[in-house]
Amino acid sequence: MKKCLFILLLLIALAITATYWGYTKINTFINQPIQKSEQLLTIERGTTSKKLATLLEQKKILTDAQLLPYLLKLQPQLNKIKAGTYSLEGIENVNQLLTLFNSGKEVQFQVQFIEGKTFNEWRKDLEKAPHLQQTLMGKRDQDIFQLLVLPDYAKPKDKKQKLNYEWQNLDGWLYADTYSYTPNSTDLELLKRAANRLVKTLEQAWQQRDKDLPLKTPYEMLILASIVEKETGIAAERPRVASVFINRLNKGMKLQTDPTVIYGMGDNYNGNIRKKDLETATAYNTYVIDGLPPTPIAMVTESAIQAVAHPEKTDFLYFVADGTGGHKFTKNLADHNRAVKEYLRWYRNQK
């Protein structure tokens, strides 16, 4: 009887010792430093604790992860691991690693779409974006236009100008901003976000616009906003620049804005506009055509859209650079010519 009791007590002691030893090992494991040979780690959907342990060893994040399944059983609050791609930057030990996997906070990357640029320029930035699935490679701009499902008014219906240009044009239809995305997002998903934001901003501005504008559709507002965007980078000046174009449209005057000429020249533009260029008919040469060009000429900011929706009330019909980054505005051609001479005099003195 005493012998049996001794054996029982021995077994209990051994069990307690083993449990304590195991608890100590696991407690040590949870604070074990990670190796961080991989800065990014992707956990697939359906990854079990055993598969996760194998993954961490394969990626050399942990030299030995055999205790991980036992740890997750003892601490089930750490076993709500979410699929995704995670950055290990700033992660020092197993506890922090598991806390990250439970949070679901995937690593974020960014791509910046700059206002005043064209879609062709944006597309190059998009193709260089890290960890972004490229699903649009080889597709024409017109194909991408259709995939974005833009409003019906995005395609002009007035084709009386029988000149060579693409009606389905993505310039202007994407909101200029910095966009964050997670790995394995697609380029199309990102463009849809930019397009939806632009359309929402444009339609809201259209509903709240000044009612006496000589613009028939939100699309015309977008076209004019793209011209304002290219004419000045000073946000405070945009409503005044917009007023010049609004006044010209009201008077039936040609817009005569250089950025549209440059856009119409395409690859033929080499940094200079010659008299010949101003006289050459293109769909975008506002020294030749009446009214607005057929499409926007650049990506726009909300500031430019609002400037067109609510332009300053002025009598200005002309403006020219003043040499300080802004513009001098005038009401008649004689004053404008004097302002141009002043600018040219300033410009020559800078050489």
Topology at a glance:
Elements: H1 2-30, E1 40-43, H2 49-58, H3 68-74, E2 84-87, H4 94-103, E3 109-112, H5 119-128, H6 141-147, E4 178-181, H7 187-207, H8 218-231, H9 238-251, H10 258-265, H11 275-279, H12 302-309, E5 318-321, E6 327-330, H13 333-349
Antiparallel strand pairs: 1-2, 3-4, 5-6
The biggest beta sheet reads: 2 strands, antiparallel
Strand order of the largest sheet: 1-2
Provide the residue-averaged pLDDT: 86
**Which class do the helix and strand fractions yield?**
mainly alpha
Shape: elongated
Low-confidence stretches: 13-22, 160-166
Helix content: 40-55%
N-to-C CA distance: 111 Å
Radius of gyration: 32 Å
Tell me which oligomeric state these chains represent: single chain
Total number of domains: 2
Number of helices: 13
The topology string of helices and strands comes to HEHHEHEHHEHHHHHHEEH
Strand content: 5-15%
Number of β-strand runs: 6
Characterization of the model:
This protein has 351 residues and is mostly helical. The chain has 2 domains: 32-107, Endolytic murein transglycosylase (Dna Ligase, domain 1); 110-316, no CATH class. It is 46% helix and 7% strand. It contains 13 helices and 6 strands. It has helices at residues 2-30, 49-58, 68-74, 94-103, 119-128, 141-147, 187-207, 218-231, 238-251, 258-265, 275-279, 302-309, 333-349; strands at residues 40-43, 84-87, 109-112, 178-181, 318-321, 327-330. It has a two-stranded antiparallel ribbon. A two-stranded antiparallel sheet has the order 3-4. Strands 5-6 form a two-stranded antiparallel ribbon. A hairpin with a 5-residue loop joins strand 5 and strand 6 (327-330). Helix 7 (187-207) runs parallel beside helix 12 and helix 9 (238-251) packs across helix 12 (302-309). It starts with a helix and ends with a helix. Residues 13-22 and 160-166 have low confidence and may be disordered.
